[in-house]
């Protein structure tokens, strides 16, 4: 079967799983949230990366039902963690450009929130600069609907696209996620340190939170802390892990 048909089957047969990568508050060192990252556990092929199947889902339209499934599962899981009495978490969901423009993401978020009881202000949606640059007025209207629901918006892979912060300010955005490409070579690359520091300072001056991705070393974390970066994600804390492992990480710090 073509990957498209196999992906449709995987979705209905429960072969897609959500992994969660912790997001850490840099000032307190505590896990305050997680990014949900979908995985395909194929009985024959094993683990298939979203880097392989999300593009197929986008082109074929499977991204519609797949995106709805992710949104619903994340809100249901978030509500389970709340009911278990674990610390409040902000959960982030990725939206690919075609998904953002061709599916009703605001309606999808609204029903996932209503169905689960998960609070809107604990849901964060990640979009790339590319998704916002395409048909910007339409994008702005969708973001305004999401903002009215109380959902938070993050710009993913920030610094790799073409938008300026001035352009981004036209959208109701809450968080900038510094692309991991700027973090990787800290402290070896003076340029990357200057770029990261500039994103943090400009983000803060515009009233945005800043999260650094791909943090792998204590030195990188120390640099980000010194610059006042708000949150980080990366192997230094944890890889993306299944629900049970993420719950264990939360319980270990409770
Ligand atoms: O987890 P990993 O680093 O392998 O993810 C690879 C890519 O897949 C990333 O760009 C990530 O944003 C994307 N991705 C992961 N989960 C989802 C999802 O649920 N929806 C969408 N649209 N993209 C996802
Ligand atoms: O495009 P997006 O930023 O949503 O995807 C994040 C990707 O980065 C995921 O595939 C995740 O597995 C990967 N990732 C997360 N933390 C680290 C890290 O510390 N180092 C590296 N090299 N990759 C990471
Ligand atoms: Mn992301
Ligand atoms: Na990213």
From TrEMBL:
Residues 1-254 form the EAL domain. This is EAL domain-containing protein. It comes from Paenacidovorax monticola.
């Amino acid at each position: 079967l073509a990957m498209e048909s196999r992906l449709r089957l995987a979705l209905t047969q429960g072969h897609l799983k959500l992994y969660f990568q912790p997001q850490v508050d840099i000032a307190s060192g505590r896990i305050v949230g997680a990014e949900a990252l979908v995985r395909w556990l194929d009985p024959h092929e094993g683990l298939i990366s979203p880097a392989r199947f999300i593009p197929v889902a986008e082109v074929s339209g499977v991204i519609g039902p797949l995106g709805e499934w992710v949104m619903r599962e994340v809100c249901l899981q978030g509500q389970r963690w709340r009911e278990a009495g674990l610390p409040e978490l902000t959960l982030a969901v990725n939206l690919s450009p075609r998904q953002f423009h061709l599916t009703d993401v605001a309606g999808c978020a609204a029903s996932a929130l209503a169905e689960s009881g998960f609070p809107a202000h604990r849901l964060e949606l990640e979009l790339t600069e590319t998704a916002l640059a395409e048909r910007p007025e339409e994008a702005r209207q969708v973001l305004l609907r999401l903002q009215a629901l109380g959902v938070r918006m993050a710009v993913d892979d920030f610094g790799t696209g073409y938008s300026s912060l001035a352009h981004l300010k036209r959208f109701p955005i809450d968080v900038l996620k510094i692309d991991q490409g700027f973090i990787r070579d800290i402290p070896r690359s003076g340029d990357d340190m200057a770029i990261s520091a500039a994103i943090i300072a400009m983000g803060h001056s515009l009233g945005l939170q800043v999260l650094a991705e791909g943090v792998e070393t204590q030195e990188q974390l120390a640099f980000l802390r010194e610059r006042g970066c708000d949150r980080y994600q990366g192997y230094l804390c944890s890889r993306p892990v299944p629900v049970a492992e993420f719950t264990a990480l939360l319980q270990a710090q409770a």
